Hints:
single chain; alpha/beta; Rossmann fold; 2 domains; 6-stranded parallel β-sheet; 15 helices
Amino acid sequence: MNNSICLIHYQPIEYYPPAYNLINELSKSKFINVLTNHNNRNIPNFGFNANVRIKRFAVPEEGRTKFKRLYHILKFNVLATVELFYLKPNIIVYIENQSILPVFIFNYLSKRRKFIFCHYHEYTSSEKLKTETFVSRVLSKLEPSVISKAVWISHTNDDRVKLYSERFPQINKSVLHSFPNFPPRHWQAKRNNKIDLPLNIVYIGSISLKNMYSKEFLTWVSMNVNKVNMDIYSINYTTDIIQFIESLNAPNIKFHPGVRYDLLPRIMDYYDVGTILYDSSQTNYVYNAPNKLFEYLACGLDVWLSNDLISSQPYLCKNSFPKVISLDFNNLDKLNVESLIDRENMVFKENDYFSDVSTEELINKIEKILSSKE
């Protein structure tokens, strides 16, 4: 067994499909150890090939009390740190500051030369950090020390890289990278050039009434029973969104439990349009080109998103399909559905938004390091 590469992901990897895609791409040619936690959202654990060894330590959401939550946080960090000293990896890839403590301890105490790679699914501004949990604020104190040793630091788009660079101007810009959340290439699908009414719309992912245009969009759907149907698939949702859907009593809106990530292409085959409902209430959302955008496109769906999402605007496409269209979610009553779905005289345009492309630079960096040690 080769222990050269270790990836640390505090949150269960099943909650973060981009982590799954990164591990899959890395493991095509390299053995990788993954340190993570158990998931308790009633979804199956991801399966990987023989080049992936996963160790799970705690259940971060199991305890409702502060004491139990702290216990699981400590359990993960202690056991993951011990595992790092056992594995003695040359390359450590950690995801988000939630995973930083074992890296900090190992880097400080181990004399072994190691190469640190850091990736962020989300961008947290200094202002937002002040509202985070005590544990998050403590872990963020370790960030400057660890990233000063990193050979790779990535965010999901160029805008977030720029914001991060401004927040940490001491970082050598040569280690900063844009690493978008693209789906696997085998998801690629081509659709017919015609969409008929009623339009079938899907939303996949976390959903609530807070920081999203859920209320506005669902209200609009409920008022267009003969034109649109909408299905929602989510494993992470709030009570208020369920109550709101029930209050609408709309026959054309259905809520479903979350679906396994690898089954999404099969599910999306039934729909015409995928929606992204984030609003502009957080910097993290404004500078966001979410994985849902690329997952919908890979499966041939048109995408509707808010014009608030600055980092998604470069992907807008209206003259070929699948389309990517930005909407004013505060004025949905002016929406012309027929015009939005019209594909007359348009051609299908392939894109290259797939994980083998997005991970190529990172994997090349790792291979270069490993080859220099042989």
